[in-house]
Amino acid sequence: MSEDSDGVTTAGRIESIHIKGFRSLADVKLDNMPNPMVLLGANGSGKSNVLRFFEMLTEIYHGRLAPFILRHGGADDQLLGGQRQTKQIDTIVWFRTGLGANKLSFTLTPASEDRLAVASEEFRSTTHDGRDDESYSASSGNESTIYKFYHLSKSDWRLKAATDFLRDCSHYQFHDTSGDSPIQKRWDVEDNHRLLSHGGNLAPVLLRLMEMDLPRYRLICAHIRRMMPEFDDFEIEVNYGKTLLRWRPQSTNKTMGAHLTSDGTLRCFCLVTLLNLPNDMLPRVMLLDEPELGLHPFAISLVSHMVKSLAQRRQVIVATQSPHFVDAFNLNEIVVLNMRNGRTEANRLSEDEFGHWLEEYTTGELWRKNVLGGYP
User: Fold this and answer.
1) pLDDT tens-digit series, residues 91-110
2) Residue 255: which domain range?
3) CA-based R_g, the chain, Å
4) Residues 140 and 208 occupy one common structural domain
5) What is the model's pTM?
6) Which stretches within the chain are classed as H helix?
7) Which of 12, 64, 173, 356 could staple 59 via S-S, CB 3.0–4.6 A?
């Protein structure tokens, strides 16, 4: 993997993770995580629970565990089978930053008012040459004490690098395109640093690219035309510091607002923009939840190849159940999830075991035939 300034190694990456007790993840360990990593499974197999855990990890190191738990149903809903069955969530994360290898472990336990508290946590770092080992441990706090220590002192550069990395993991799900969704509303023109998880600030992000990175903006438009030949260009409406997403078809001079645009087309706009942003507008770890939703099979294939390309620059974790999407990925990039007695099982695919099937079938066809497992 590249070590240059654009590479995943320099940006950092999560290498392995062990999760016990979070939702359906009774005891799930993902070692030597591939990049990209595609989580493949039927509805209810636990794909979204894996992504939600990574999202929770980020919120913990933003100091926002309490609102995250409240937003997602309370502590009882996060524990496998509820508090009567599971008393705590235990996690170990191995990850790498530009300063070396890191190991983070923590335990979450129920607290008052249906919250989870950080009962204990430990951080350990090692430099690239395996020397100068440092550690930090703490216990009992409503929020991460490691986060608080970093936030107050900012004196330990390795802890700072590790905490910055854990805080820079973003979850994207462009499912809500209803009339009340953020993408349908006017948005602050200055909110253009990154595309938000729901895509609501797509208009200011596109406007920034028009003004500051025109070749990239034109590339995004060209990719959209491959999926939607009727598309000509965007016309971002700006009034009193607010932007509104509009686009122009090739067959008419009339521009179309988001309210006149199909759900699949809006998701296409968000996905293609996200997957082609410059490095300074991307998080270090990206979580994509069912990016195929509402897209034509040809568009799904194009998006999957964009994900493959993006994975050369950033770590990407995708949850999907689309045969067309997984066709673009190697067997060793896929983790198949199955639900057994209310518990998620994660199975890595082996070229030795399944490789001979690819002489006659694509990866997606093997998924449809249930050769790879994980099918209803």
Assistant:
1) 999 999 988 899 999 999 99
2) 182-268
3) 21
4) no
5) 0.93
6) 8-11, 47-60, 65-71, 75-78, 145-153, 157-166, 202-212, 214-227, 263-274, 297-310, 323-326, 351-354, 363-368
7) 64
